[in-house]
Design brief:
The protein is mainly alpha-helical and 159 residues long. It is built from eight helices and two strands; from the N terminus they run ααααααβααβ.
């Protein structure tokens, strides 16, 4: 399933100006991943590196193209007034499995520092709701990400 969403993300359009518009699914995804990374108010190097690794793996990009997409996501998030502008784009471009896999990527970013902050948890919850990912799928994605992050601590309940 994860390979299918990576394949889908790689195939999303990247035409002229693609990395500057929030209507571009790549920029929307980058902005949401950037947003969850900063939800707790602390951006650690390990989170930034995981953010860039997720973008690189998802879109098969590196170097200047990766830096441009990361910067476009950061810029879009900083200029946004809400998450809907990004989630509506992803909802249009991803099928149900792709949306679940995207929530899994968000959890990877959250757990990159080995901690779960309630603001990060809330951000993933809101994004999942906006893109139509069911509670049990969100919780299962969180459990998988937490299991892959040794020493993870933070919220231990399912909600």
């Amino acid at each position: 399933m994860f390979e299918r969403v990576l394949s889908f993300l790689r195939d999303l359009p990247a035409g002229p100006g693609a990395h500057t518009s929030t209507d571009d699914p790549r920029v929307a995804a980058s902005a949401l991943l950037y947003h969850v990374m900063n939800a707790d108010g602390v951006r650690q190097d390990v989170e930034w590196e995981r953010f860039k690794a997720v973008l690189s793996e998802s879109y098969s990009i590196s170097g200047a193209e990766l830096e441009a997409l990361a910067a476009a996501g950061e810029r879009a998030d900083n200029e946004a007034i809400d998450l809907y502008a990004f989630t509506s784009v992803l909802k249009r471009h991803l099928d149900a499995e792709g949306r679940k896999a995207f929530i899994g990527l968000m959890w990877e970013i959250v757990y990159a520092d080995g901690e779960l902050h309630e603001l990060e948890d809330n951000t993933v919850w809101r994004v999942a709701e906006l893109i139509g990912v069911e509670r049990h799928d969100r919780v299962e994605a969180r459990r998988k990400a937490a299991a892959q992050a040794p020493g993870a601590r933070g919220i231990s309940s399912d909600e």
